[in-house]
Write a sequence for this structure.
């Protein structure tokens, strides 16, 4: 009989780390393991450990999907010294993501799915062999993890529970509206500002997710969790422009209360 070890159990002992020089003043860190979910979970925990420990000489930590770029002062520490310090930090803390870090937040983000806001939903449904309603149900039931902040601080999230991979657009759009919720593979992303994209648009959030007038400009970061909630189009006017914030209680759609959309309300806005 084959048994499967839960990710938290497998991470009780520090996994092997690859630490490769990246120019004169940076290290590229990767967790060695055959399991992609394991690598991502361990990478997220590694980032938390390094932010907590802040090894001597470290200037910045940039998260990738399955890697971390650690920038450092090359006059203060060498590649080899920093790599050894990081391995010791991991050995002392372990990369165990069984419980969420106190610095991690959960966001519940409202999304409207309409003919205007979800131009690729019918095609995604056909590609996956599902109805548009089933695609949205799968999407809403997925708890996503922000793996990295892409261009313009766009949150790139993994963990969409689709039964297969979603392909990218054959011809990328030259202009995608801000707030557009897009999918590709089993990942999702939100467009913070108008711009081009080859990801498939299945909805739009009325919230502002990145605002340069705020400090910081975004309330989310790598390692945070996200869940989407399809709301009726009539909620758009009430929520439009509100800045996305997490609450102490776990999550919020905005600074205001979280509207609840039942299946009837969600389905009524499908194309």
């Amino acid at each position: 009989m084959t048994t499967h070890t839960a990710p938290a159990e497998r991470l009780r002992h520090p996994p092997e780390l690859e630490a490769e020089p990246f120019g004169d003043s940076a290290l590229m860190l990767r967790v060695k393991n055959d399991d992609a979910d394991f690598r991502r979970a361990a990478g997220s925990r590694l980032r938390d450990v390094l932010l907590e420990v802040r090894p001597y000489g470290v200037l910045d930590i940039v998260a990738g999907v399955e890697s971390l770029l650690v920038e450092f002062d090359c006059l203060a520490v060498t590649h080899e010294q920093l790599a050894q310090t990081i391995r010791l930090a991991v050995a002392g803390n372990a990369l165990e993501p069984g419980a969420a870090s106190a610095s991690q937040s959960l966001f519940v983000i409202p999304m409207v799915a309409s003919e205007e806001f979800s131009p690729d939903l019918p095609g995604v449904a056909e590609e996956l062999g599902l109805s548009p309603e089933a695609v949205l149900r799968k999407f809403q039931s997925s708890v996503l993890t922000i793996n990295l902040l892409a261009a313009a601080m766009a949150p790139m999230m993994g963990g969409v529970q689709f039964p297969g991979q979603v392909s990218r657009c054959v011809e990328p759009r030259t202009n995608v509206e801000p707030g557009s919720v897009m999918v590709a593979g089993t990942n999702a992303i939100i467009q913070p500002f108008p711009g081009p994209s080859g990801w498939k648009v299945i909805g739009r959030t009325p919230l502002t997710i990145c605002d340069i007038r705020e400090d910081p400009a975004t309330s989310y970061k790598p390692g945070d969790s996200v869940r989407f909630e399809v709301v009726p189009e009539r909620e758009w006017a009430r929520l439009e422009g509100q800045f996305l914030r997490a609450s102490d209680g776990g999550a919020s759609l905005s600074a205001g209360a979280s509207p609840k959309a039942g299946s009837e309300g969600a389905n009524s806005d499908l194309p």
In short: The chain has two domains: 7-93, 106-267.
